[in-house]
Amino acid sequence: MSEHPLPPGTVAQVTEGGPPLFGLREMELNFGPQHPSTHGVLRLVLKVDGEKIISARPDVGYLHRGTEKLFETETYPMVVPHTDRMDYVASATNNHAFCLVAEKMLGLQVPKKGQYIRVLLDELQRISSHLLWLATAAIDLGAITPFFYTFREREVILDFFEEYCGARLTLNCMKIGGLPLDLTEGWVQRVAEFNATLPAKYDEYEDLLTENRIWKKRTIGIGVFTKEQCIEWGVTGPTLRAAGLAWDIRKAIPYECYPELDFEIPTGKNADTYDRYIVRVAELRQSQRIVAQCCDWLLKNPEGEVRAKVPRVMKPPAGDAYAAVEAPKGELGFYLVSNGGNKPYRLHVRPPSFINLQALPEMARGHLVSDLVALIGTIDIVLGEVDR
Amino acid sequence: MSESILYYGVIPAIKAVVIVLVMATAAGVLTLFERRLLALLQVRKGPNRVGWEGSLQWVADTFKLLFKEDIVPAKADKVVHYLAPLFIIIPAMTVFAVLPWGPEVSFFGIKTPLYAMDVNIGLLFVLAVTTIGIYGVILAGWSSNSKYSLIGGLRSAAQLISYEVPMGFAVAAIIVMGQTLSLVEIIEAQKRMGLWFIFPGLVAFFLYFVSGVAETNRTPFDLPEAESELVAGFHTEYSGFKWSMFFLSEYANMVTVSAIATTLFFGGWLRPFPNVAFLSFLDFIPPIIWFLLKVSFFMFVYIWFRGTFPRYRFDQLMALGWKFLIPLSLGNIVLVAIAALWGKTGLTVLGTILTIAFAAGIFLAFRVPPKRLTVIEKSRPTEVPA
To answer: Is residue A6 part of a domain?
Structure first.
């Protein structure tokens, strides 16, 4: 690790580009918070030499709402809706991660049917989140058409969510111990039918991008972040897998019914933006397989409870616990400290977006401003989760 | 006396007014055309509320633009900020003077050609005047006193100057074939030879159109106004009427590039195979319609590009221009010049060879099945750290 003696982004780390020409200094460019491609309210203070980035300093906090403090004022069941607002394009996994840690503390076992529905919702959420990612990452690089193709499918998935729980974005679709609702009549059947059409849709996106010369030129070799660097920085999710490490919480620390499901963890080799694209598209295909298996199981086993027997007042014993799920953006974990009361004493979130965002200055150094937008796209951040 | 006033005063004035009005309107209609077509490519509907199927959307947009507040940044260079849109719109409109829309026709007994004038150095005039428009872009970027505008303006300057070179060489190949600089005479030469210059000039056409797309700042070369990087590039700080000047000139330039491509490579107002007698029934379509049809096709290609391609990065754009297009254009000139030594025969032989090579290339390209991503590597069980 001699290549990175100092934390990147610090002034001493910045490579000097020779003596300043004619007394000209590099330009400071304020990138965001109101900029079309910062995916929300990310602000980056760039030092650029021409268009080459000398340093990029993310300035986060524009969307800070004190969510973690807010958790401490709510009883356990009331925390769930607040988790929706973190990664608001993948709220099912947020709910899931919190429910997991609460169930671990309370010692609850979710019934089998509940587990399958949870996984089904998670994977639908992963598909919709990755579709959103694909749309915005492509639009950042100037390809506007994939946006409308992916949103066509995402819309259907959101309709399914709406039918199940009434909300399209902030789902609030899980409860401690299971699920709030049983499935609607015929819902699984329709999800399965839609799911069967997805691979052909994925082919359409790939026709537009995978072998597109300009797309390859813009993404291959951009923002290389190696396996070692990923581990050093705690980067998880598709970025880590694109670097070649098959680390996925669903396989590594299995939860719910994932061990019973047949799926694979796609990995890349080159750790660049193109590999991250490939990994996410491959994950879309894997999620489609998981959804198909969940639908099959639910069609075969329509009867059953969806929620465990839970106490009226939830008071976990004093102590602490950590539980994580594989969110679309990486490892989403909740660390819960309980003092035996009906409210969390402390509930800390390990947000993948925030931790992955730290890698941005390291990835961006030496690239051009145009690549920076590709990199913001490729690490797939949601500012609601970064700032909390 | 009165006749010379008619032919050298009144008629050119009428033509000039008609051309400017028609083009200003056409730019509006083209925005609608673009939006509907793009919507078609993107599985959505596009504007369909104002008028029948959105046909009046562009009128509403125009009025909206004209009545919007004109905002000038506090620290902008006011004079240059005001002049920049003029620098870009005036050349864009001036070029239309020499575009040959159609041959001679007679209105009320007055015989007159369907173009404002036939300049004997028409091609040079087009290249020279369109280049002036670059000043508008650079000055707009500089005078706005915004970093994004500045980067957009600088990108634009480098890009436009680089792509003038292959464009000039591509046009030079046509000059060798037609042995004239006049746009009208180039069309006449294509008629005389019975051969559209696209066939011997296949490479030149490719060069011209790629450079043309780059010159008009359109996808995939829309770096000066790259939305996701520079917000709106050189016109970030413009609004209202001044902004609409940039907008108008972009569409006007697209029409210019399409019209020049039509004139140089696709026989202008000529019908397909102009000397083949048994196709003469096609003459019932007037020449100007042929011309407009061909121009519309290129406009379609422009929009098709926009729906398909991501954006190049700046250094890649420069590399494409200097390392690929310019050497190719130099080679092309040599090739065409050698073929032109044998006159029509040489050009026909070259055209046949290029066409066959092109068709073979397309055929082979479609035989390769598209790649699909499956799982890249079988998943490995990962050890759980203690």
So the answer is: no
